[in-house]
Amino acid sequence: MTRCTALIVAAGSGTRFGSPIPKQYQDIGGMPILRRSILAFANHPHITDVQIVISPQHRDLYDRAVEGLGLPVPVHGGATRQDSVRLGLEALAAQPNPPDFVMIHDAARPLIDAPTITAVRKALDTAEGAIAAKPLVDTLKRGAGQKITDTIDRANLWQAHTPQAFHFGAILKAHQAVIGQQLTDDAAVAEKAGMEVTLVPSNPDNMKITNPDDLGRAARLLGQNFGDIRTGMGFDVHRLIKGDVIHLGGLAIPHTMTLEGHSDADVILHALTDALLGTMAAGDIGTHFPPSDPQWKGADSALFIRHVVQMINERGGLIAHVDVTVMCEEPRLGPHRAAMQKRIAELLEVNEDRVSLKATTTERLGFTGRGEGIAAQAIATVRFEG
């Protein structure tokens, strides 16, 4: 099988962005820009693996942004983007099995879409290199100060985007040949080496986030793409029996009781799993993780959530919000609420302000009131591409 690695460059300091947090770690649509860029490639069938290049100074930001994605150790970048790309390529070359193709992408382009990735990759079947690019449609003027000095013919002019993809060995050799030269993109490096590079029409929304105003524009574009808003509801109940720990909201809470179930019986995560599955009309938790299957005996319910989140990602979905109500007398959830909210947000790959978690009693009425069990209800809102 032909291997194509996505090399995502995220080593910039973002000084032009005017924020202490570099732009690639800023939030857009409920997740860091870098994470959204990574998911576009990690979930694509033509991409076999993803390698990130970062600044070592941002390792803590990076670790938070990619938590749960199972990525290889990031490569440390250099003083310029060109240096960072070369260092990333050299790290790939040092692997036991270097890729056949490499697709280089700027982390600050989080709106890259699957069709553009596909088109760029397919172009490599007949070309040494290919880049996503947008034909220029505006009239171009050259100026001196505020005065026009010339009108430039826009025919055959394109605006270069990323990803930019190449046969791996050729682009590695090309980058190593121009160390110290300041070229503006990888296509320019390839051109210097005499490589023929194909232009592939890019999605016009594949913008690069450069300044704070771009965040608002990107968020609006993201919202326009996700016009199919769906809501799912989940409900789960588990009996309380003698034990020493209760699993709730992804936490293990010490207690004199435990919840009975085939897995760890986390009613919160089970209700959430069903709610998320409901947004896709994809059955229920028992369909995907039947209690008759011994592999789920005592399983961490985080596995169920991660599976459904992956399903949503593969369908191009975006989790907008979840709202959970837990019904029980014991344990008291107040001391654990913040940690549960944080854990659920991590599992769903969203910000904590998109996770609502509430607890109530039933005034000693019913099975929850008698302390016989715990119930949870969840509602999930997911936006899919319309």
Walk me through what this model shows:
This protein has 386 residues and is of the alpha/beta class. It has two domains: 4-225, Spore Coat Polysaccharide Biosynthesis Protein SpsA, Chain A (Alpha-Beta Complex); 228-384, 60s Ribosomal Protein L30, Chain: A. Helices cover 30% and strands 29% of the residues. It has twelve helices and 18 strands. A seven-stranded mixed sheet has the order 5-4-1-6-10-7-11, with helices on both faces. It has a five-stranded mixed sheet with strand order 15-12-18-16-17. A hairpin with a 2-residue loop joins β2 (27-28) and β3 (31-32). α3 (81-93) crosses α5, α5 packs across α6 and α8 (267-279) packs parallel to α10 (302-314). The radius of gyration is 25 Å and the shape is elongated. The mean pLDDT is 91.
Q: Write down the overall geometry.
A: elongated
Element-level helix/strand string:
EEEHEHEHEHEEEEHHEHEEEEHHHEHEHE
- The helicity comes to 25-40%
CATH superfamily of the largest domain: Spore Coat Polysaccharide Biosynthesis Protein SpsA, Chain A
Rg of Cα set? 25 Å
Profile the largest sheet: 7 strands, mixed
Q: Write the CATH fold name of the largest domain.
A: Spore Coat Polysaccharide Biosynthesis Protein SpsA, Chain A
Instruction: Provide a count of the helices.
Output: 12
Give the gist of this structure.
The chain is built from twelve helices and 18 strands.
Give me the secondary-structure topology.
Elements: E1 4-10, E2 27-28, E3 31-32, H1 33-42, E4 49-54, H2 59-65, E5 75-76, H3 81-93, E6 101-106, H4 114-123, E7 129-135, E8 140-144, E9 147-152, E10 158-167, H5 168-177, H6 186-192, E11 197-201, H7 212-225, E12 228-242, E13 245-248, E14 251-254, E15 257-259, H8 267-279, H9 285-288, H10 302-314, E16 318-327, H11 337-348, E17 355-360, H12 366-369, E18 373-384
